[in-house]
């Protein structure tokens, strides 16, 4: 059984889509990051970095319980465990390259674009421009890769597509306009195709019965950005 520690944000959404695509049994364990539940000792024992998502596989290698954190690591682990969505063997080097491009580029820069554009208590035009433009540049890279292609890597739907979908799903929030993919027609076409998969709709429903905190008050800011709020001397 996969114990899936979840919050409805882009990186956990990737894992939700994988689980729905494969039908792998899982137990959902909501973690409310705006209430600081990611910092509780029980969760830090699973992910010392205090971020979502994380999983515990009760039937890991050798029948032992295994913890896995970071969405890219989880996707690779589950794909190898199930033998699903890894693409053709000859495509593996490129698969790894695109997974890490998304993990080190698309995700972090999109996250920072959201932070400085929507959350930061100060308006910093340089930071807002820097991260938004980098997010757009990453979209351009994906757009060129997808020209004349159905999927990001090879001829098959893979965890690279799943990983990119998780963040592209929030493109409107990242770039702040109603049709953010309009300048990237190949990317827009690809996203629409992935988003139309039945598993994508099911993935979005995961956790919908749980009431997560939505207020971005001081409690939430301290929970989400603890390094900005050092403990009192």
TrEMBL record:
Positions of the GST C-terminal domain: 88-216
InterPro entries tied to this protein: Glutathione-S-Trfase_C-like (IPR010987), Glutathione-S-Trfase_C_sf (IPR036282), Glutathione_S-Trfase (IPR040079), Glutathione_S-Trfase_N (IPR004045), Thioredoxin-like_sf (IPR036249)
Domain GST N-terminal residues, every copy: 1-86
EC number: 2.5.1.-
Catalytic EC class: transferase
Organism superkingdom: Bacteria
Protein name per UniProt: Glutathione S-transferase family protein
């Amino acid at each position: 059984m996969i114990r899936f520690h979840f919050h409805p944000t882009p990186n956990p959404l990737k894992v939700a889509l994988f689980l729905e695509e494969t039908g792998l049994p899982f137990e959902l364990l909501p973690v409310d990051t705006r209430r600081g539940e990611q910092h509780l000792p029980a969760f830090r024992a699973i992910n010392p970095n205090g971020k979502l998502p994380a999983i515990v596989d009760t039937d890991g290698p050798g029948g032992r319980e295994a913890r896995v954190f970071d969405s890219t690591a989880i996707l690779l682990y589950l794909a190898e465990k199930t033998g699903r969505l890894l693409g053709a063997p000859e495509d593996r080097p490129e698969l790894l390259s695109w997974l890490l491009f998304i993990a080190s580029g698309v995700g972090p820069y999109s996250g920072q674009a959201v932070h400085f554009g929507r959350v930061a208590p100060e308006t910093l035009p340089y930071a807002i421009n820097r991260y938004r433009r980098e997010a757009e540049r990453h979209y351009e890279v994906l757009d060129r890769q997808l020209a004349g292609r159905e999927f990001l890597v090879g001829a098959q739907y893979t965890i690279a597509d799943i990983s990119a979908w998780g963040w592209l799903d929030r493109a409107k929030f990242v770039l702040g306009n109603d049709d953010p993919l309009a300048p990237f027609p190949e990317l827009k076409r690809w996203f629409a195709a992935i988003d139309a998969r039945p598993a994508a709709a099911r993935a979005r429903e995961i956790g919908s019965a749980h009431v997560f905190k939505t207020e971005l008050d001081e409690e939430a800011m301290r929970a989400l950005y603890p390094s900005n709020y050092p403990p009192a001397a």
